[in-house]
Amino acid sequence: MNSRERILGRVRRALADVPDDARPYEEAVARDYLREHGQRSVAQTVDLLAENLADYRARVHRCTDGELPGLVARLLSAHGSGSVVVPPGLPTGWLGAVGTTLVQDSAASTAPELDRVDSVVTGCAVAVAETGTIVLDGSPDQGRRRITLVPDHHICVVRVPDQVVSSVPEALERLDPTRPLTWISGPSATSDIELDRVEGVHGPRTLEVVLLSGS
């Protein structure tokens, strides 16, 4: 008897007393989860997102459409960025007259090439207030997953309140599961080694989230 037969035999014995007419697991288990915790206004939901983003050590900024180009330019300058990778569908007005070299997202770009780029600016698909999470899905204003994992500095623009939801269930309803989803809660970090927090291990060391309002 090989390992596969041994495991399947144990499964059959474990299921021996299950009635033939038992409901499938996916039907028998109740799915009456809360869609969100508590009742919040739209403004309170956005404030909760900002609070939880900051709790994860993301740098949070708020601005209007007209203020965005200037803010992005200041953030890039403050970081000392000489180059920034740009997704193909990023609105041209977001960058304005930044004094940095613009690197277009290209499938031919290698990880070492992207590692030499200082920053990346993207939009997002949705942001989850209760968890302080932004989700990217590879849309034109976000580009390929690689460009948001290799450069050390990520500026992500979230349109509020349109792209902000309260909970993960609400976010999942908006997302296409066939797209390359990247869920980001704060800058990349790990505490695997002696419980010492080290940032920038699996992605950007610095995450800046801009909450963009229309007025």
Automatic annotation (TrEMBL):
Domain LUD: 105-212
InterPro entries: FTHF_cligase-like_sf (IPR024185), LUD_dom (IPR003741), NagB/RpiA_transferase-like (IPR037171)
Organism the protein comes from: Streptomyces tendae
Pfam families in alphabetical order: LUD_dom
Domain of life of the source: Bacteria
Protein name, as recorded: Lactate utilization protein C
Span of the signal peptide: none
